[in-house]
Amino acid sequence: MGIGFTELIVILVIILILFGPGKLPEIGKALGKGIREFKDAQKDVKRRTSDSDNEPEA
Predict the structure, then answer these.
(1) C-beta of residue 34 within 8 angstroms of C-beta of residue 25
(2) Which pTM was predicted?
(3) Domain count, the chain
């Protein structure tokens, strides 16, 4: 149930029609930044969870 190549092409064409070629770099940059921030937050949560597991109990 994944997105196939044909579906991906259709989605990209629709995005190109809606936003135009001038906006695509901005959209890509914003999407990349959002994904990067999500991954950083996920790593931070894992680190905090790992740190709290290693603390001695009082």
Answers:
(1) no
(2) 0.59
(3) 1
